[in-house]
Design goal:
Elements: H1 6-9, H2 18-28, H3 32-48, H4 50-53, E1 56-62, E2 65-70, H5 73-91, E3 101-106, H6 136-143, H7 148-163
Parallel strand pairs: 2-3
Antiparallel strand pairs: 1-2
Helix pairs in contact: 3-5
Length: 164
């Protein structure tokens, strides 16, 4: 009888979805409640729209209740009347299904993020262009690269190589 190799004895693991891996990692880091709250606040920002976001912002998620800070008591009453339609729109958004009720509190809304637009990544700083002369054939080859940023990186790389 033939022995199985270590590779054959190893348990076969089925591939997992990335979202499953991320969720399990967040649970392991104990950040799942924080991310759940941020998703719910973002869902409120998308469901509410710019008119409401000018005067109300999602503040925190406790359990399944999303706390909303509003600028005035009049806006609190108005949003109380719109609560069902906002919750309905939130159910269709990622993170909105975590919210069962909205609670409104009067306060300053300017210090809170509006969660309407995802923050963009900071721009990558441009690398300084080197001035080491290259052969004409290299310039001709670089001129054929349509992407200007890639052309700059390749030119810098070739210039550094030429200095050595």
């Amino acid at each position: 009888m033939r022995k199985k190799s270590a590779r054959a004895r190893r348990r076969q693991i089925a591939p997992e979805a990335t979202s499953t891996l991320i969720d399990s990692t967040l649970r392991w880091l104990r950040l799942d409640d924080t991310v759940r709250g941020m998703r719910a606040m973002r869902a409120f920002g998308e469901a509410a729209g710019p008119r409401i976001l000018a005067r109300a912002r999602a503040e925190r998620l406790r359990g399944k209740t999303l706390y909303i800070r509003v600028a005035t008591s009049a806006w609190s009453q108005e949003l109380h009347m719109l609560r069902a339609s906002i919750l309905e729109r939130m159910k269709d958004l990622q993170g909105g299904d975590e919210v069962d009720s909205l609670r409104f509190e009067v306060g300053d809304v300017e210090g809170l993020p509006d969660w309407a637009v995802a923050p963009s990544a900071p721009p990558v700083p441009a690398k300084p262009q080197t001035t080491t002369p290259l052969h004409d054939s290299v310039h001709a080859a670089l001129a054929g690269v349509p992407d200007g940023e890639l052309r700059g990186w390749l030119g810098g790389l070739l210039a550094r190589a030429a200095r050595r």
